[in-house]
User: Which sequence fits this backbone?
């Protein structure tokens, strides 16, 4: 549309107006076509911006608004159509617009990030919640997969290998979408649960590899020494292999937990209110492009750094014992 | 009693893939005997020793321990028989996650279901024997190679084995530590332990071995009293090999 109306313009698409305003401010784009109420809000909030009424001569077809309904809700569609007809007949649009302007939450008074601490806190809460739950189930899935890898049954080994390879060979984002929408076809599960399921399934594959690597890294001589003493396979694992493997597994597992905190941010695409999702809400609300990102970045760093310290503490303790 | 056959090997062969490492090995070890096995690198000495307690599964032939063919028993029986044989490795293979005393106590408690205080007593007695009582609560990584190997011997002895297998127990050690380990083995031999020792320590072999077996290319090419084999080898390959190790000393 802009192409038709403004000669020599290249069009760049982005999905959120906050991102577009930011792009405008950082000279990535020259101008931004936007609805009047939003533009007003941005300009009020930022003296570096200026609003120019486009004066586009738009006909009715070009300003069309659509409302989406669930398939089969016929009565609703007729009802809505009826109201629209009435609105047009009585020419209520002008009045509505004025009202909407009043209602639209344009927070230009207090855009300090402290004012939004509750939003960030909720984001951190969900990010931590998803990470903890996924770590827990990821470890369980990982242990089961690792046991399958060491099984005598060929098909169990094959199954574990296929699963691991498949998970590692596809992006987490696709897995998140697949679990949410794919399983959503059969049973309706909330976004948060879908997010936890997909991140756990993903993490399980990586944890399995870490465990397998840790076990394989224990010297072969240890197995032979244990066997020569008459120890059973179970005792060999329990007293000799696993305690040693755990020393190698622990740091790698720590890295996995830390990357889980970061990677879990992908669940925001299905609407889970994790830190990324919340940061976008704050951006939309304050019309400030960078600050919320910076705050989220700091919060992520604080979480991962704290976890690193905790893990190092335990690692140090284990070194002492060995 | 002296004539009781502890180990009996008949037509033992071992292949790794197509590679035949052991070819028709025969031999017996009687109770209280000390056998030293020598031979060039790659001769199959370690493989032979590992076939004796079935750490390596023979391709064909028999390995009889106290009359039972180990190649023909199930996993459970094998574990039962194996606990009656001790093995000491070139690289010690102590469990690094346990203290010295824990290394010694693990198998007696888990395999023989010995009570903790009894295992403790046995372990301390053995540590005293190898001169390492004061290291009971140390971790293996804080010990010298010679000390680690002595602990490894004590750990094998804690199971009160009927035969001890040694695979080059001193060849990973600094020269000044070889003596302390050989001394422990020497005492063990004098106490009547049945032993099969892969070693190139001629002094030790001459002093305690009843017989020396010379291995090359997967065969035992010569077996003789140590004095005979070292001073007057009959086999050409053995003559060649012994000439070389004498030069190296
Ligand atoms: N698990 C295995 N798989 C394949 N080949 C093996 C295996 N173990 C040993 N071999 C081969 O068998 C041959 C004999 O090995 P072995 O360790 O028994 O020799 P050795 O006489 O003990 O030699 P060294 O004096 O070097 O210890 C070598 O060529 C070795 O490469
Ligand atoms: Mg060897």
Assistant:
């Amino acid at each position: 549309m802009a192409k038709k109306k403004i000669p020599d313009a290249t069009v760049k698409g982005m999905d959120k107006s906050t991102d577009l305003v930011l792009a405008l401010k950082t000279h990535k784009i020259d101008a931004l076509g936007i609805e009047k109420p939003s533009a007003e809000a941005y300009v009020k909030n930022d003296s570096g911006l200026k609003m120019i009424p486009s004066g586009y001569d738009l006909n009715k077809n070009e300003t069309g608004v659509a409302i989406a309904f669930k398939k089969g809700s016929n009565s609703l569609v007729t009802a809505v159509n009826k109201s629209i007809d009435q609105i047009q007949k009585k020419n209520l649009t002008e009045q509505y617009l004025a009202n909407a302007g009043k209602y639209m939450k344009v927070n230009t008074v207090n855009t300090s990030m402290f004012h939004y601490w509750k939003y960030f806190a909720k984001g951190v809460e969900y990010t931590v919640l998803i990470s903890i739950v996924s770590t827990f189930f990821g470890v369980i899935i990982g242990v089961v997969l690792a046991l399958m890898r060491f099984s005598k049954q060929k098909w169990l080994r094959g199954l574990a290998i296929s699963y691991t390879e498949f998970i590692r060979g596809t992006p987490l984002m696709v897995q998140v979408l697949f679990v949410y929408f794919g399983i959503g076809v059969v049973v309706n599960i909330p976004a948060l649960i879908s997010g936890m399921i997909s991140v756990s399934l993903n993490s399980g594959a990586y944890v399995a590899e870490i465990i397998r690597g840790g076990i394989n890294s224990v010297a072969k001589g240890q197995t032979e020494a244990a066997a020569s003493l008459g120890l059973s396979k179970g005792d060999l694992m329990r007293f000799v292999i696993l305690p040693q493997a755990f020393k190698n597994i622990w740091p790698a597992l720590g890295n996995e937990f830390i990357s889980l905190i970061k990677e879990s941010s992908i669940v925001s695409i299905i609407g889970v209110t994790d830190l990324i999702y919340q940061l976008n809400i704050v951006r939309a609300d304050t019309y400030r492009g960078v600050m919320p990102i910076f705050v989220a970045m700091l919060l992520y760093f604080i979480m991962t750094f704290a976890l690193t310290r905790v893990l190092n503490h335990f690692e140090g303790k284990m070194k002492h014992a060995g | 009693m002296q004539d009781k056959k502890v180990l009996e090997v008949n037509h033992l062969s071992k292949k790794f893939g197509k590679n035949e490492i052991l070819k028709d090995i025969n031999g017996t070890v009687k109770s209280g005997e000390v056998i030293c096995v020598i031979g060039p690198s790659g001769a199959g000495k370690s493989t032979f020793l590992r076939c004796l307690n079935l750490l390596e599964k023979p391709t064909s032939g028999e390995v009889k321990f106290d009359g039972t063919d180990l190649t023909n028993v199930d996993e459970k029986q094998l574990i039962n028989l194996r606990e009656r044989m001790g093995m000491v490795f070139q690289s010690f293979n102590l469990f690094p996650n346990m203290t010295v005393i824990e290394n010694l106590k693990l198998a007696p408690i888990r395999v023989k279901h010995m009570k903790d205080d009894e295992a403790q007593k046995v372990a301390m007695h053995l540590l005293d024997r190898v001169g390492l009582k004061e290291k009971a609560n140390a971790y293996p990584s804080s010990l010298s190679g010679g000390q680690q190997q002595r602990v490894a011997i004590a750990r094998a002895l804690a199971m009160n084995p009927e035969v001890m297998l040694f695979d080059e127990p001193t060849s990973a050690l600094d020269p000044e530590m070889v003596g302390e380990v050989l001394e422990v083995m020497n005492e063990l031999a004098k106490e009547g332990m049945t032993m099969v020792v892969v070693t190139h320590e001629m002094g030790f072999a001459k002093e305690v071995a009843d017989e020396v077996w010379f291995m090359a290319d997967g065969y035992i090419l010569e077996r003789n009293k140590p004095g005979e084999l070292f001073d007057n080898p009959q086999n050409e390959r053995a003559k060649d090999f012994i000439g070389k190790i004498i030069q190296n000393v």
About this structure: The radius of gyration of chain B is 18 Å. Residues B 16, 21, 39, 41-47 surround adenosine-5'-triphosphate (ligand 1) (CB under 6 Å). The longest strand of chain B covers residues 5-16.
